[in-house]
Structure formats: structure tokens, C-alpha cells
Specification:
133 residues; mainly alpha; 6 helices; 70% helix
């Protein structure tokens, strides 16, 4: 259960399609007493997936011209810096934000921090909604 949630959360944060929220909710129905551990595992997996996307952006930045680096996402991330990574939890555009953060070479450790905060907030809210229902 834990390993599956970790892998699902990791893959959901990369450019691959998929979501981990449904699996988190299913796991909560099976083992509600593990809520804290499940939220932590999903948050870590999802954060590491986003860091992978950041890394792909950083690798891509070495191969792109300055003109190619002027995408809307890259310009937006340049404008708002690491704070833009608080939105890395958003479906579809969150992946693009993480890649753009790597493209524009935002500081790695601060990026990891803001990615993790955003992801953890999302899974915490999902768990809170589950238990409130």
C-alpha cells in the first residue's frame, strides 16, 4: 500500500499522465489510522517527482538557446521565483512550472522546499476533506 502510493505520487508529478489523489483516498478508506504516514509518503513521492521535472528542465536549459528559454512559463517563473513553486501541485501546469524552474535555474534547495510545501498542503487538504465527509 505505502510503496504503491509512493510510486503513484512520484509518477503523477512527472510529465507522465496520472493522479495519486484517488489512491490516497482509497488507502485512507482502508487504513484511516495511517493518515499522517499516507500524507507524508504521498507528499515525498510527489515532491521527488517534481524535482525530477526540475532536473529535466535544468538539463534542457543547457541545450536550448536564449530565445527558446523565453516561453511564457519560464518568464512567469522568472518573475515570481521560487514562490511560483507553491503552485506545483496544480494539475498539468504544476509540471510545467517545475520544468520551467529548472530551465531558469532557480536555486535547487529553495525550489525543493517550496515544491514540498505546496505538495504537502495539497495532500493534507485532501485528507481533511476525506475525514470531513
Amino acid at each position: 500500500m505505502i510503496f504503491t502510493l509512493f510510486i503513484s505520487s512520484f509518477l503523477a508529478a512527472t510529465l507522465l499522465p496520472g493522479g495519486s489523489e484517488a489512491l490516497l483516498i482509497y488507502d485512507l478508506t482502508q487504513r484511516p489510522e495511517l493518515v499522517i504516514m499516507l500524507v507524508i509518503v504521498a507528499s515525498i513521492g510527489n515532491s521527488l517527482g517534481s524535482v525530477t521535472s526540475y532536473g529535466l528542465g535544468a538539463i534542457g536549459a543547457k541545450k536550448l538557446t536564449e530565445q527558446q528559454l523565453q516561453s511564457k512559463a519560464a518568464l512567469w517563473v522568472k518573475k515570481y521565483g521560487v514562490y511560483s513553486l507553491l503552485l506545483s501541485w496544480l494539475p498539468l501546469i504544476g509540471d510545467v512550472i517545475c520544468v520551467a524552474a529548472g530551465l531558469v535555474k532557480l536555486p535547487l534547495w529553495r525550489s525543493i522546499l517550496f515544491i514540498t510545501v505546496g505538495k504537502t498542503c495539497r495532500y493534507t487538504v485532501i485528507a481533511m476533506i476525506f475525514f470531513a465527509a
